[in-house]
Amino acid sequence: VYNGADEINLGLWVNTDLVKEGEIKSVQDMLNPKWKGKIMWIDPRTSGFTAGPMTSVRMRLGEEVVKRLLVDQEPSFHRDNRLITEGLIRGRHAIATGVTKPVLDQFLEQGIGKNVKFLDIPDFSGAGSGDGLWLMNRAPHPGAAKLFVNWALSKAGQEAYSKTVASNSRRADVAPIDPERVPKAGQNYYRNIEETIPEVQKTREFIEPLITG
């Protein structure tokens, strides 16, 4: 039984001390020479946080735009979410992927990180579901399992779930925990689902020689 959030889970993060409100609204804005050398991508060869958005860019805007983002803009690459988040907070780079809310929350609890903001960028952001609820075949107590599943998918169950894991519920009658991550009506998001895996692999194969040289 599928259960989880339908929210924007792939996107761009910026340091608002360096990126002003409305300065980046599209992928084309990210190609501004102003951002050359000021972008940090989490390594797209190992992480979907960049590979997913770059798949969307490749399919919608073409490989040349991917190359400009990953090569011509002279970005840096890293594989550590915490170091990327800290670098964004400290202003070592202005734009990044790979920031996660749990890691950012650790900095916010220390009173820093309020200058970091998530941006929902058309043709770049991805939406999907990250959690699942499974009813196993031949469960020892199928009646109890069914009772739990029915509760978990109810409004009360989803409110408890959403609050506990800090993730938006798919139920429209459950208030979102993170309103910024609610997909915008009418926007065609890249979907991080099983059917898109072959396209992500194509993107990784295209990206590999660009980064390794």
Defining key terms:
alpha/beta; 213 residues; 8 helices; 3-stranded mixed beta sheet
Can you describe what's shown?
The protein is an alpha/beta fold and 213 residues long. Helix content is 39%, strand content 12%. The chain has 8 helices and 8 strands. It has helices at residues 27-30, 48-61, 63-72, 81-90, 101-108, 142-152, 155-165, 197-212; strands at 7-10, 12-15, 39-42, 76-78, 95-96, 116-119, 126-128, 190-191. A 5-stranded mixed sheet has the order 4-3-5-2-6, covered by helices on one side. Strands 1-7-8 form a 3-stranded mixed sheet. The model has no long low-confidence stretch (mean pLDDT 89).
Please, how many helices? 8
Estimated structural class: alpha/beta
Report the portion of residues in β strands.
Answer: 5-15%
Biggest pleated-sheet summary: 5 strands, mixed
Order of helices and strands: EEHEHHEHEHEEHHEH
- Looking at the structure, what is the overall shape? globular
Task: For the record, give the distance between the C-alpha atoms at the N and C termini, rounded to a whole number.
Answer: 44 Å
